[in-house]
Amino acid sequence: QCLVFCDVVPQAPIHFLVIPKRPIPRISRVGPQDAEVSPGGSLGRGGGDMHSADPPTPSSSSWGTCWLVAARTAQAEGLADGYRLAVINNGNHGTQSIYHLHLHVLGGQQLGWPPG
User: What phi and psi, each to the nearest 5 degrees, are found at residue 74?
Assistant: First the structure.
């Protein structure tokens, strides 16, 4: 239901993205069918630095499950001291540049605030 891969321009020692396999262009397009979290499933490693939530459950949400996958992946990557789920940009005024909803997860160092 979700894919996890390393950011091509990392902003922290550990920086990965979590995206739903089902295309959702932006957060304002998330519907009620996207709210539930898939019960069960485990984090499995695919090729290279890619992870996925297994097994896909057609009746469950992809976006809700992505939050769980983000937390499980952060744990698997050793981010016990904390991590950041980055801001989700929505639309032109929100400076969205990739129109496939995704989460950024950053960690592996003390992060400052405000970000950037």
Answer: -60, -45
